[in-house]
Amino acid sequence: MYRIRIYQSLLLFGLSIYPDCFSSAQLCVKREDVYKTPKAPPVALHISEFPDDDVIPIGYNITIACIGNSSKEGDSKNSEQPFWIQLFFNSIKVKTCGGLYSDRQESKICKLHIKKISKNHSGEYGCIVSNRFGCTTAALSLDLKEPSKPQFYTHPISRNNILTGQSVNFSCEALGIPKPVITWFKDGRRVPKDEIKGIKAFSLLTFESVERQDQGRYWCLANNNEGWNRSNVANLTEGTIAHLRDEQTVLEIQAEADRDENEVFDEETYLREMGIDRNWQIPRENLEITDDQLGRGEFGMVNKGFYMRRDGSKLPVAVKTLIDNNNQTQRLALISEMETLTSVGRHPNIVSLVGACTFEEPLYVVIEFVPGGSLDKLLHNSEVQRSIEQEDQPYVNIWSRLTERELLQIASDIANGMMHLESKLASDILIS
Description:
This protein has helices at about 1-10, 245-255, 265-275, 330-345, 375-380, 405-425; strands at about 30, 45, 55, 60-70, 85-90, 90-100, 105-115, 125-130, 135-145, 150-155, 160, 170-175, 180-185, 190, 195, 200-205, 215-225, 225-230, 235-240, 285-295, 300-310, 315-320, 355, 365-370. The chain is an alpha+beta fold and about 425 residues long. The strands form five sheets. Strands 1, 3, 5, 6, 8 and 9 form a six-stranded mixed β-sheet that branches. The chain is elongated and about 105 Å long. One of its GO terms (biological process) is cell surface receptor protein tyrosine kinase signaling pathway.
């Protein structure tokens, strides 16, 4: 008992049994070595609001918490409990919790609250936790940066022609400060957490053995306090013999892509190459938007533009933008249209997606430019004015300046395009 009183008095007067400066705490055990000294108190030091983040956003309120727990060994009841915690910033003591032996607790915590953290708070933070038998140190380095909303670094990639029983992984990785939380969706419904590995910044969705009901459209949503972002859509389809022809087409296109990059080829081949299983984000600096407005709707506008190809030539495109970039309904509608186009893929009778710019404002969805304009306008403009007498004649609905061959070709192209849509988006097509 006499020994305990002397020890306590030395602590109260700051004598050298335990150093009063964090940088010179040679007598204490480091947190990672506490297992070597069972009587020393285990320690945890973290930022309560961002326990898993390496970088902390400037301007936020944070709490640096040091937690000391009872050691694994002790001479008598309660003797191993921590009773004193000291907090340091750049080796200078900034806060003390406890200090008397009567302050001992099974789990003792000391918190340092910082409001609207700034660059001045960058540096080394540490703590010393003491019990009757010894002390343990812990340290962390605080790295501060400006907050930013999520941006996807890795998008899930479509997995087609997967045989039943095969294993498949989808991965998403998003950057942002603070670290974004990733949520997975399948066909518009949230995927249960127990099927996902990892939540913050990087997330993996694994299928150990693919079954028919696993087929669908998958994407992930990244959220932090600064905003949200949505990944590209990845399709998971079960393999059948019917896919073999499509696989051969892809192989042929990939063979074309292996040619010398300086070789110039036609726009149709270029668009087909761009459509192969890829990240649809395109460099914003490669996009030139003109003042030539091609159309305007309730939510958005379409302007003619040019996309700079890797061979240096310009590809004519149509660029869709939002009238109000802050309107979430409009944003979701445009993103949903982009996701539909990525699922549809390339077809000669469907207007194809060239790419998108969604990491920064404003949002751009870039599609193939069709010089002939709207088919609806073409058909209406080709109508022949008829007299009252001619109205009673048969087949007046096809009185047009276009020939029968041209009209049949249009009908055939529409049917081919619809058949392609049905094969890609069967579950999304409704008939009323």
